[in-house]
Write a structure and sequence with these properties.
Bound molecules: S-adenosylmethionine
Helix content: 25-40%
Distance between the termini: 28 Å
Strand content: 15-25%
Radius of gyration: 19 Å
Shape: globular
CATH architecture of the domain at 1-119: 3-Layer(aba) Sandwich
Strand order of the largest sheet: 4-5-7-6
Number of strands: 7
CATH class of the domain at 1-119: Alpha Beta
Structural class: alpha/beta
Number of helices: 10
Order of helices and strands: HEHEHEEHEHHHEHHHE
Length: 241
């Protein structure tokens, strides 16, 4: 749902087909491809080959012309001045050199081309996972969860865009109500599609059950008969070259 909202902001403003819209940190939700359809083409970039493979399989039905690149966002192997839109959803917080990545995004845009970057602020719902990981895995256990929500200061994000040379920088915040599966199901879905799966593989069955119990109890305020409802904050930054 967060992605659907974000994708709406990338639709062509003048009704023309998008030529190419690179999707940085493609991961497993190739939303840009769904918006572009067969009228344009998409370049999907991610540093993680496993995530690219999932993105590729999910994008197969979209019909869009997608080229995939296993690469870091800090060094994009694509020509300058050749893309209408750069789209980076929930990926910037993981990129080590954010300034270099933004300069690269700007380089590949045509003059006047648009960039959209989205991130999420910390929240009490995922604090439950952070605390349980720290308690059962150790001090570093919650580090991944904290990193997911680490790029959360709109002023800093605006400064990063300005420093990279973008104009018309706008950073806005929003909230979306997400409907999730029941706590136990969602916990393991989340764990198995993140690096948390490696950390939890170090626990024995008793430790794993204790962590699961803590998280399920911690998520009770968001739980109802059919699953969980959780309001996620969203920070969306847009700008032009
Ligand atoms: C939370 S996923 C987001 C995936 C997708 N955009 C989505 O919204 O579902 C973050 C992605 O950023 C990728 N990533 C992390 N550092 C990166 C970098 N330096 N360059 C490119 N991709 C990177 C990860 O491999 C991961 O697939």
């Amino acid at each position: 749902m967060i992605g659907t909202r974000v994708a709406g902001l990338t639709s062509p403003s003048r009704g023309e087909p998008l030529r190419i819209a690179p999707d940085i940190a493609s991961g497993f939700e190739p939303l840009t491809a769904e918006r572009v359809g067969t009228a344009g083409s998409v370049a999907g970039l991610d540093v993680n080959p496993g995530m690219l493979a999932v993105a590729r399989s999910m994008a197969a039905a979209s019909g869009a012309d997608i080229r995939w690149y296993e690469t870091s966002a800090e060094s994009i192997p694509l020509p300058a001045d050749s893309f209408d839109v750069v789209f980076c959803q929930l990926g910037m917080q993981f990129i080590a050199d954010k300034s270099a990545a933004l300069r690269e995004m700007r380089r590949v845009l045509v003059p006047g081309g648009r960039v959209l970057v989205s991130t999420s602020p910390p929240n009490p719902f995922f604090d439950v996972v952070d605390q349980a990981m720290s308690r059962h895995v150790g001090a570093d256990g919650g580090a991944f969860v904290r990193m997911v929500f680490s790029l959360n200061d709109p002023a800093r994000i605006e400064q990063l865009f300005q420093s990279a040379g973008f104009r018309s920088v706008a950073v806005r915040t929003d909230r979306r109500l997400l409907r999730l599966p029941p706590a136990k199901d969602f916990l393991w879905q989340y764990v198995h599609c993140t690096p948390l799966t490696g950390l939890l593989s170090q626990l024995d069955s008793g430790q794993t059950a204790a962590l699961e119990s803590d998280v399920v109890r911690g998520w009770q305020p968001w739980s109802d008969e059919g699953g969980m409802s959780y309001e996620q904050g969203l920070i969306v930054a847009t700008a032009r070259k």
